[in-house]
Amino acid sequence: MTSTTAASLPKKRHTSAYARKDMRIALFLILPATVAIFVVMIVPLVYAIIASTFHYSLGQEDKAVFVFFENYGKFFADPVAMRSLLNTLIFTALSLTLCMVIGVGISVLLKSLSTRTGNVLRAIFAMPLLISPIIVSLIWRYMYDPTYGLVYWFLELIGIDGFGGLTNSVTALICIVITDVWHAVPFIILVASAGLTVIPDELYEAARIDGAGAMRTLFNVTLPLLTKTLVVLILIRGTDAFRIFDLIYGLTGGGPANSTTSLSIYAYKQAYENNQMGFAMAVAVITLLGLVILFGPLMRNSARGKDD
Amino acid sequence: MLKRATIGTGKWVLLIVFLLWTVIPILLVITNSFKKAKDIFTDTPTLIFTPTLDNFVNVFGKSDFAQYFLNSTVVALCSTLVVVVLATFAAYGLTSFQLRFANTIANGFLVGKLVPVISMLLPIFVIFNAVGLRGSLVGPIIAHVALNLPFAVWLLMSFFRDIPRELEQAALIDGCSRMQAFWRVLMPVVMPGIAAVFILAMQYSWNELLFSLQLTTLETYTLPVGIASFVGAISVDWGLSSAAATLTMVPMIIIGFFVQKYIAQGTTGGAVKG
Amino acid sequence: MALTGLTACSTPSDDGGDAPQSDVTLTVSRWSGPQADAQQKLLDEYSKETGVKIRFDSIDYGQVKQKQTLNMSTKTGEYDLIYVPEAWVGEYTDAGYLADLTDMVKDESLTGAGWDYADILQSGIDVYSRDGKLYGLPYFVQTPLVVYDKDALAAAGLEAPATWDDAIAVAKHFKEDGSGMALPFRQGSAIVNIMAVLLAGDDADFFDASGKLDLTNPDVVDTVAFIQELSKYGLEGSNGWHWDEVNKALQFGQAPIGITSSGLFTALENADESQVAGKLGYAPIPYAKTPAGLLQTWGWSVPADSKNQEEAFKLGAWLTSKAIQKEMGTLDPSFISFRSSLADDPDLTANAPWLPTVKAALAKGVTVPLQPNAPALTDALSAGLSGVVTNGDDPAKMLQGVQDALASQF
To answer: In whole numbers, what is the pLDDT of chain C averaged over residues?
Structure first.
């Protein structure tokens, strides 16, 4: 491929009137979005960073005590906090991997079908994402119940007895991963399907003529060309998984024995149950830092725009 | 030949298994909405039961469901349209103009997305209250726009970057202005991305609970608030919440079906030969 | 303008011009559910009587505290009357959110004649008072109790458990028989509530006489050991259940015995919905020394930023008046008030067979710890207890861990 893409041209210095007009158009295009994000997200972020250096309860800001970085130290000294960090990392790794593998796999399979069938199936596959998270956690809590649940009925059918489910420290997190994958895979499918439209059919034709099988085509043709989409997907899904809250809160509330407490659940409890708003803000900032550390490298690569 | 056949059936087995796994929980919600409580809590899942419409009747009787539906429609439609427009413009601006600060802004957007929601609630409540937006539908609309913009911009940026430069150049050489080139040539090409952003942003706004509840008052509550209200302090009304969920799901599923064909239509095929 | 004056003048049977007018609109905040539905009827009645318009903001329980706090801390004036449990009173009064009602309860023009302040149980008044001032009107109380299928126990030759040993014996019998005792042993507030009642029943406490945290006391260790033993005979899934799931297990006949909260009992005796209506017996939670109960209370408070404080108080007083509390108990049998005159009311007891047991249990009613630092304690205990029942952690070690971590805060 000898075409050049927008990101691969060298940056020019703009001096002409045309270039200045260009610049104005660019600013006009970018400004509204920037303002919205700044007001709704950046301002609270600054507020959170400042608030994290205090010790106070919601509503009692006038009694706040400045404690510098004590809240951060407190986090790393608390075994429950460390557990929540570990749980969050494990959860993110598992959920992200499963989502990507299943999501991309299904998208590729769908593309190989006729358009009508593909569209119908894709629309059906999109459904879990369209359901409110409250209902997702309610229905899966119901399904995981040993007495009434479908999951247990199904396991009994295939002969598995004594599944720990949501009441076992080890299996509880896995159960939540499964629910999260169920809910989030449609996101991957939708975006990957859109991304797959970029790949010209000629390439598949060429591969077929070359005698490549399904797997080789997948790895040598499809995935490389899908890279930009995949990176964006990993960024978005990964950061969402890291911040998961509603699902865990609805399914287990953090238990049993803190085995499913994530960073967000831990922060929520500190803020609204233990009335330690400053500490909760510190946890929130730590979460943000964790995200930047984990996903930052991906962000930098993506922005630079790799050439074909 | 045999290899092709086994790949063919293997593919269909996977698809059918995935189909079942996707659909069964949803069917569960729908059937629960037609059941009385005693049929929901049985030892073995029952397919045979006497259906009842009580739950649906009660959903409208015990809450302002019709009002919630109207509010949700306004909020979801407005916020989604704004997101699609702003994100498409921003993505175009950030990728096609070789701006030096493009990377900084793009990264800033993503950092914005990473801001934990827990730290957003109070400042936004205070700001919106101060400007008189508390209790108005505009509050959740703005909040949803901001919450959806980061992923939308990043997604569309990746689509814009995939467009061969020659496409835009050709249009400019033909005498189009920047914006004309944008509308006539680039937009159709990124349409799958726009369609994906449309349905994703819409479902997020339609199902969002926290800001929709805290920034509004009784008259401006949305559907998720209604669904959540069937979850009491110590008990869940399964029939009612399932019925409310079913009613809430339907519009999104219908829109999903319509948007599908835009997501998967190939558009660059043949436009430019590399 | 006296409330009694208004009702004396208006004649509800006339329409149009004679109906009471008021330009006051009150906004009430509480959590949604069957109790809220019943209350809606009462509020409609009040609106008709007084002309006051009421916006009833009953929302998802998980969001109520946030919304109340956001509005009160920003002083938006959105709410006029809010529903407050014993757990939030300390926080709200520390932050100065609530209006002082001490003088208003003595004003007959606001409470209405015959309101009878002395009729309200002192335990309720204590919960909603701080520094000698009253900040809320006690309205609703619930406590966990043992609920059992009388036939199932009789068939097994067992009696309702009274002591800890009784409880183990009964639960073990049913577990070996295939079911077990339904227990709300999820990591959450329920299991800590049960621990509090067990301690009270053993004349013990989380704290020693001087108020210091005392979890390694042998009484406390024994209590947790009992919880661990009992959990072995819990119905499958109990370790992940909250009150709701236990109630469903009882309601649909899967559990012959269980511990659930009195606020949920209506469903159990509802002939349309329940498989065991009319067959159930109620007993206090097993006790080592005396029967005890948990004071889980809800009351009405007036936010300090409300623009209609007197009107809001009038509504609150109306709701907590004897007649209206009785009406509420009739609409929703699970509804138990703080009015001692209603405790033995035959009309109410006819629909609520558990009332005598509740009264007996609440004779020694305790609250969960309510100090400012208490939430951290209940959080750590709920996680620790969850480990004890699901992972078989050692009770003494668990308690020592929590003691070491939190002793300095009390």
So the answer is: 90
